[in-house]
Design goal:
396 residues; single chain; mainly alpha
Length: 396
């Protein structure tokens, strides 16, 4: 049995590598590979009689999952809500990554994320330049099924690549080479929420590194407006146009969502039920007759799952930021923690205009980025204890 344990450990780690690589390529492949990784990890823990280790960010996620199940029971359509709530199973990404991505493995996974992101960015640029994915009706979407998912993933990878450039003296060349492609691909998606998120995430990294780096922002903006296609710059200007239909509709969605929360404060209307009841809450000045969600993460959670679920989500964000700050203070996990902080800032900023926390591909990559710093540092603890015990045995 002991002979099989190293092979099982290597197999689980390989499955984790493949899962992380597939996140930006295929939701079906990533789901299958996550399942395989889970099965191998559970088998490994049983054979080693090892107690599962749970990082702090998992507990608020577990509470969020429990609040979701309560909202399912109280839903207007419990069966449909239960089917939609399978996303809470994706929270298992956290303990999986925490156990298997120890030490240098965490940095290797970060390299994989940046590399796959670069490949999908090039594909997105090709879609724009050759395949006529060059207007709002048809935007670059990489290998994803929707441009919003593609842009959200690019946003996270940009933060990770920038963190490595700023905080990792040894591995800067590759992220520096691919960062322009990531930025161009994101710009060409026409996705304003992801633009805002990327700007917030990168700006946060600048502040963490050196506040004076923010002085480069006007230069970067000038270069962008000089080189960007007219259609992209017009999309930027539309962010500040109060008469823009999408802007007006987001205000209408905010009003409708607030009324949903007032009517269903404890359990919400139920997961995947916002679209079903939206017509009953929409205001007269709403642009669209219906919307699948409210384009705002906190409001969507409160309206869909209730205030207790929103409280659990806020607790998750607070714990995540606390743990990332601690990781940033440790040399072993500084770069990864910076990437996690950039991802959190980007998610929160973009989440004011888009329900990115409910996007499965985005959620999984986001949780990976938040867990990698803790996993990298956990390796130090796991190797220091045996060394201490060996010293005690030898002295005895």
């Amino acid at each position: 049995m002991a002979v099989h344990i190293p092979k099982l450990e290597n197999g689980a780690t390989l499955a984790l590598f493949l899962f992380v690589a597939a996140l930006q390529v295929s939701i079906a492949a990533s789901a299958i590979l996550l399942t395989v990784t889970l099965v191998l990890l559970v088998s490994l823990l049983i054979l080693k009689k090892e107690r599962p280790e749970i990082p702090p960010i998992f507990w608020p996620l577990l509470l969020y999952a429990l609040a979701t199940m309560v909202s399912v029971v109280a839903s207007l359509d419990p069966i449909k809500s239960l089917q939609d709530s399978k996303e809470v199973l994706l929270f298992l990404v956290v303990p999986v990554v925490y156990r298997l991505a120890r030490g240098k493995t965490a940095s290797t996974l970060a390299t994989i994320i940046i590399s796959v992101g670069a490949a999908t960015a090039v594909f997105g640029i090709v879609q724009y330049g050759i395949l006529n994915y060059d207007h709002l009706g048809q935007r670059p979407q990489g290998s994803m099924g929707h441009y919003m998912t593609f842009s959200g993933l690019l946003m996270l990878v940009i933060g990770l690549a920038t963190a490595r450039i700023l905080f990792n003296a040894r591995d800067r060349v590759w992220p520096a080479l691919v960062l322009p492609a990531l930025g161009v691909a994101l710009a060409l998606t026409f996705t304003r929420s992801a633009w805002v998120g990327a700007c917030v995430g990168v700006s946060l990294l600048f502040v963490l590194k050196d506040l004076r780096l923010l002085a480069a922002a006007p230069v970067i903006a000038a270069i962008f407006f000089t080189l960007a296609p007219v259609s992209v710059t017009e999309r930027v200007y539309s962010m500040f146009d109060l008469q823009d239909p999408t802007n007006r509709d987001r205000l209408a969605m905010a009003q409708a969502g607030t009324r949903m929360v007032q009517d269903h404060p404890l359990t919400g209307v139920g997961p995947d039920m916002v679209q079903q009841v939206y017509v009953n809450y929409r205001t007269a000045d709403a642009v669209n007759e219906n919307n699948p969600h409210l384009h705002n993460v906190p409001l969507q959670i409160a309206a869909e799952r209730g205030m207790p679920a929103l409280g659990a989500w806020i607790w998750f964000v607070v714990v995540a930021v606390r743990e990332l700050i601690r990781g940033f203070q440790r040399p072993e996990s500084r770069t990864l923690a910076a990437g996690g902080l950039a991802a959190t800032g980007a998610m929160l900023a973009a989440g004011m205009f888009e329900y990115n926390f409910g996007d499965s591909e985005f959620l999984m990559l986001f949780l990976v980025l938040l867990t990698l710093p803790a996993a990298a540092y956990a390796h130090k603890d796991s190797v220091s204890i045996p060394r201490d015990s060996e010293r005690h045995r030898s002295s005895f």
